[in-house]
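ok so I'm stuck.
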Amino acid sequence: MTRICATKYWAEWIAWKLEEAGYSTVTQAWDFKPGGNFVLEMHNAATIADRTIAVLSQKYLESSCLASPNQTPKSGNIVMRVV
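replied:
not stuck anymore, here's the structure
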């Protein structure tokens, strides 16, 4: 999820709560390097994840965050992975 998306703060709060409960998480805001390859980073997270949590809102689905078909929820990209 990009930093401009409305659901960013919810994803970070959920990740914080999960980590507080002893889980590890991978989120774009905390773990992806600026200018990195989003699809590759998501693939790497997917290979180590035991569970996946998608955080979406109507604002997110209507936002410019989905500018590329490769970044739509339908294509399998997930907002946050729990590992």
